[in-house]
Amino acid sequence: MNEFDFIRRLSDQTSSRKHSARVLAGIGDDAAVLGGLADRNTVITTDLLVEGIDFYRDATPPRLLGHKALAISLSDIAAMGARPLWSLLTIGLPADIWATNFKEEFYEGYFVLADKYGVTLVGGDLSEVKGEIVIDSIVMGEVAAGSATWRSSASPGDQIFVTGTLGGAAAGLKLIEMGARLGPDGLSSLPAPSKRGAGTEPGAVATGSLAETQTSELKAIEALLHRQLQPQPRVGWGLVLSQERLATAMIDISDGLSSDLAHLCEASNAGALIQSALIPIDHDVITMCGRRALDPLMLALNGGEDFELLFTVHPDNVGRLPKRVDGVELSHIGEVTCEPFAVRIAEKDRVWDLQPQGFSHFKE
Ligand code: ADP
Ligand code: MG
User: Fold this and answer.
1) pLDDT at 198
2) Closest-lying ligand 1 atom to the alpha carbon of residue 90
3) Which of 31, 77, 157, 179 is 20 to 30 A removed from 270 (C-alpha atoms)?
């Protein structure tokens, strides 16, 4: 199949879907033409995924890579409180990968998630590359004029919340680095044997018979690989928070809570005090870490790619927050303070500076 056959097929797959919100020209012309509305602001984001840096080819089933490429951009749109509508997806593939089923499976995963949120593929580009796979995902969405949620508008006294749980994606990455793999029917390879006893935290080891423990450990490993490879963007939460004008500021957790909270505080010229005991650590992380001498709190604070939403709420509005949206709960983790850039964490009766230790490219 050549480039043009493939684009034609993508165009057919797109036009057979129902949700073409105001697409006046989609795939097939020189550029997409989208109908705008006077009372909405357009929100647009792009994300680059590079093999070997952002994902490992041998550890990422193509279907999940297609999902993730879209999911991470949907998460940025969610963090602005916007509704995602349109997507552009550009892929650079080596010739040997082009010749396999990679592209079919990749777009299969992509379209399942696009359909879930009514997002229409309106264009993209395609190129052969000589080295690593490269993917660029652009998503455009809309928000009622003037109601996008910035990073920069948190005020001292606002309460800090986070959706879902943290640390799972980073634990999944650790498991991949230890050799764990997901196949089409679940786990296809286990991580290298755990070092039982070596630095293991007492109490974190699951009790019960060996058989039960093994099953629960396998389930935890599989769930954590999914957290890393198939992140779920919190689009529903983002919409509720902006439509109800509940969030004063918001960011998605892509680099890690410690880094993304620092970004929000820096943009808002404020500080934060969070409570270590209130951090919603993914319970599968606790199961996995207990057996592998890793610290669950450190993964939850510094691990990236959970794609949960971190946001602040004026104290008067805390009572109006829904308990859950799309089955995803909320945790109240702390408060915005007035000392600029001072991000702190309280653990029992001690208070520490929380250093931003999440992911960053070109680290020195
Ligand atoms: P040009 O060479 O002028 O950039 P292309 O042949 O690359 O034109 O693109 C023609 C049309 O096909 C455009 O509408 C473009 O958005 C679409 N297209 C190309 N590649 C992809 C892709 N990977 N996914 C979706 N649409 C694509
Ligand atoms: Mg082109």
Assistant:
1) 41
2) 23
3) 77
